[in-house]
Amino acid sequence: xxxxxxxxxxxxxxxxxxxxxxxxxxxxxxxxxxxxxxxxxxxxxxxxxxxxxxxxxxxxxxxxxxxxxxxxxxxxxxxxxxxxxxxxxxxxxxxxxxxxxxxxxxxxxxxxxxxxxxxxxxxxxxxxxxxxxxxxxxxxxxxxxxxxxxxxxxxxxxxxxxxxxxxxxxxxxxxxxxxxxxxxxxxxx
Length: 189
Hints:
Elements: H1 2-37, E1 52-54, H2 64-70, H3 73-77, H4 79-83, H5 95-102, H6 107-110, H7 119-129, E2 135-139, E3 143-145, E4 150-158, E5 164-174, E6 177-188
Parallel strand pairs: 1-2
Antiparallel strand pairs: 2-4, 3-4, 4-5, 5-6
Helix pairs in contact: 1-5
Organism: Flavobacterium rivulicola
Keywords: Signal
Protein name: DUF3828 domain-containing protein
């Protein structure tokens, strides 16, 4: 029994730092995406309509990732590792990363980013103003590969059934900092 407990404790000690590291990487990537896409947004003020909202859930990765892999040599090299992370049925949100990012830091960026919305809440806000200038920023769950030195993240903007756009971001960790290396498979409807 003691041997089982010792093995369990050892396994727990191995897994815990990995989950914290991934959460820190997710937070860093979220900050990069917010900084890029909220750059031109105005600070939220009373009675000012905010045009860009943030979707609460991490969107699942799907077969679109396979198209991106096919068009990029680096991704082809790590395709098996990437494909293992295509899980359609995830149910995760960005709340941990959002709270870490804005807990006593990044306050100017926070002044531009609304609290996250569900799709239903976004549609309600859009209908309230009746203009087709509202956008919902949807960020997929990051796919980490190459010993967590690269990440692939889909970023999409939902406006309505007809007007949407998106792209994949290929990020690389350089000297402990995530940077966007490439934009892949841009699309718009």
